[in-house]
């Protein structure tokens, strides 16, 4: 029987074969996965360790946009926009099953906005060059209302339509992880780095880590360790130097998810000016509409950040300013918060929306390389810059980057997105086969959502999912789409995973308890924290 390369048992059994790694990456979000993919495809022996699950943190909590950043253009940050638009184009080619060419409409409620935004977005189109997703254009009031039937019509002059990318973030993370493994990298989730190892000269020579499932400790050797842990960057930096200065400031972004009836049709809304100065998006996503985001400075961070009351109110109020069919708290299907790892400001005068979103590669005296900042759209470029930096420091032999035109696992052209299974790309066949072999796996997990039992089996067998949360939060997006429905599925999903991983009743009950507690935080009434 052919060995399943994604099996945890198989991956762990092969660990002793490598005495020394060329590259060890800490962190399995967009950045870490990108670095591992860049590293392994250049031919370096690569190990990635993630303390919980791929994209558990920030990388599963984005606004689901692959974009150049219209607001950075307004800030005059041309280079950042140009780089992001180039990467947007590559991602649309390399993962076409996940990246969708999305129309956005900016509604105009002042006479001059049509001219102003049309000019600005023509510049946006121009910067995209050959990788443009389509031209922007001005449309009159009638056409704007045709496209956005629930939009507030009072005072409306018209709209400006432009194109950007829309995607599923944690699905992309899963597919990048699979691509890494297919190319020979060793990846382990639920595997926490507990210490950095240094020699007598205080140079990094490896890491200590623990398998969270078995509690077994491991030591891994490498002269090159890359810290790609996002908002947890400082925890790793303090392992090498207890006095390390704060390098990252978490900024919280909150999103609310509503039924599609509040924004029917295929177009997204972009609101360029809100009360707090941020852009607000309302984006169709998996037959729901996702609205966000906020920008709240936080002093600390956690794996499960909580929305604050004023963030929820801000989104409800701002969205309601633009639509005729008003949303209420009762209409919120799910609420999720994510933390952006922004570079710590030089002084208190810098606001988070003014702190650069561009990435930084930092080299410590110990030789530890840290990559911070950036965003999903530029994950590939961030990885390229990180490995290039390691080469320039003579930590790796010089080899050319291979990821620019590298297809991600599952890649296939996808026009029809009616069936929710489109996100699996070429893997759809495998899931269909599971159902053919056992018809019960073709049953839905919940009447309100399209996900099938077969997807749970597939997630565990081929997508490294180990827990109910891994499946319902990041492999199928139930928790982010309808938290109450996800909570209702818990026992069924726990049973399916337990059968697949040979877990006992105690494990199952523990999973049900943990996930139920988590899902409550995604339901609006349990979530709100008065700030």
Automatic annotation (TrEMBL):
Keyword rRNA-binding: no
Upper taxonomic lineage: Bacteria, Pseudomonadati, Bacteroidota, Flavobacteriia, Flavobacteriales
Signal peptide span: none
Pfam families per the UniProt record, alphabetical: DAO
Organism of this sequence: Leeuwenhoekiella polynyae
SUPFAM superfamilies, sorted: FAD/NAD(P)-binding domain (SSF51905)
Gene3D superfamilies xref list: Alpha-glycerophosphate oxidase, cap domain, D-Amino Acid Oxidase, subunit A, domain 2, FAD/NAD(P)-binding domain
InterPro entries on file: DAO_C_sf, FAD-dep_OxRdtase, FAD/NAD-bd_sf, G3P_DH_FAD-dep
Cofactor(s) annotated in UniProt: FAD
GO BP: any one term: glycerol-3-phosphate catabolic process
GO molecular function: glycerol-3-phosphate dehydrogenase (quinone) activity
Domain FAD dependent oxidoreductase: 22-379
Top-level lineage group: Bacteria
Name of this chain's protein: Glycerol-3-phosphate dehydrogenase
Similarity annotation: Belongs to the FAD-dependent glycerol-3-phosphate dehydrogenase family.
Keyword entries, A-Z: FAD, Flavoprotein, Oxidoreductase
């Amino acid at each position: 029987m052919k060995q399943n390369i994604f099996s945890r048992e198989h991956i762990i059994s092969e660990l002793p074969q490598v005495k020394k790694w060329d590259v060890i990456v800490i962190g399995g979000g967009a950045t870490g996965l990108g670095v591992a993919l860049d590293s392994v495809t250049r031919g370096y022996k690569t190990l990635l360790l993630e303390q919980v699950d791929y994209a558990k943190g920030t990388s599963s909590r984005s606004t689901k946009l692959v974009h150049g950043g219209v607001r950075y253009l307004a800030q005059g940050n041309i280079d950042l926009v140009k780089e992001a638009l180039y990467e947007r184009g590559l991602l649309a080619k390399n993962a076409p099953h996940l990246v969708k060419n999305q129309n956005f409409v900016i509604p105009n409620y002042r006479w001059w906005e049509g001219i102003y935004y049309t000019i600005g977005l023509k510049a946006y189109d121009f910067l995209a060059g050959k990788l443009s997703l389509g031209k922007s254009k001005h449309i009159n009031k009638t056409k704007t209302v045709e496209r956005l039937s629930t939009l507030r019509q009072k005072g409306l002059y018209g709209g400006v339509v432009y194109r950007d990318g829309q995607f599923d973030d944690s699905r992309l993370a899963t597919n990048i992880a699979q691509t890494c493994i297919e190319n020979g990298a060793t990846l382990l989730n639920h595997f926490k780095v507990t210490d950095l190892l240094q020699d007598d000269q205080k140079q990094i020579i490896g890491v200590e880590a623990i398998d969270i499932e078995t509690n077994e400790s491991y030591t891994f050797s490498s002269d090159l360790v890359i810290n790609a842990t996002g908002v947890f960057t400082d925890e790793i930096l303090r392992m090498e130097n207890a006095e390390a200065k704060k390098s990252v400031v978490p900024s919280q972004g909150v999103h609310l998810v509503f039924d599609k009836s509040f924004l029917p049709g295929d177009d997204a809304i972009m609101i360029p000016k809100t009360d707090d100065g941020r852009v607000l998006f309302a984006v169709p996503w998996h037959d729901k509409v996702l609205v966000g985001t906020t920008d709240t400075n936080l002093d600390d961070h956690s794996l499960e950040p909580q929305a604050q009351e004023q963030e929820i109110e801000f989104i409800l109020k701002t969205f309601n300013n633009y639509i005729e069919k008003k949303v209420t708290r009762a209409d919120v299907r799910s609420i999720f918060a994510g933390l952006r790892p922004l570079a710590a400001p030089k002084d208190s005068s810098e606001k988070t929306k003014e702190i650069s979103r561009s990435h930084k590669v930092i080299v410590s005296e110990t030789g530890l390389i840290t990559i911070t900042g950036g965003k999903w759209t530029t994950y590939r470029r961030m990885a390229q810059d990180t490995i290039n930096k390691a080469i320039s420091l003579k930590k790796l032999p010089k080899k050319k980057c291979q990821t620019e035109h590298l297809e991600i696992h599952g890649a296939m052209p996808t026009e029809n997105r009616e069936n929710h299974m489109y996100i699996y790309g070429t893997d759809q066949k495998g899931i269909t086969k599971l159902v053919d072999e056992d018809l019960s796996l073709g049953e839905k997990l919940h009447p309100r959502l399209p996900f099938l039992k077969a997807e749970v089996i597939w997630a565990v067998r081929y997508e490294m999912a180990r827990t109910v949360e891994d499946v319902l939060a990041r492999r199928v997006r139930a928790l982010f789409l309808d938290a109450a429905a996800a909570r209702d599925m818990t026992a069924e999903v726990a049973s399916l995973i337990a059968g697949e991983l040979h877990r006992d009743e105690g494990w199952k009950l523990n999973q049900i308890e943990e996930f139920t507690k988590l899902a409550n935080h995604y339901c609006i009434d349990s979530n709100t924290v008065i700030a």
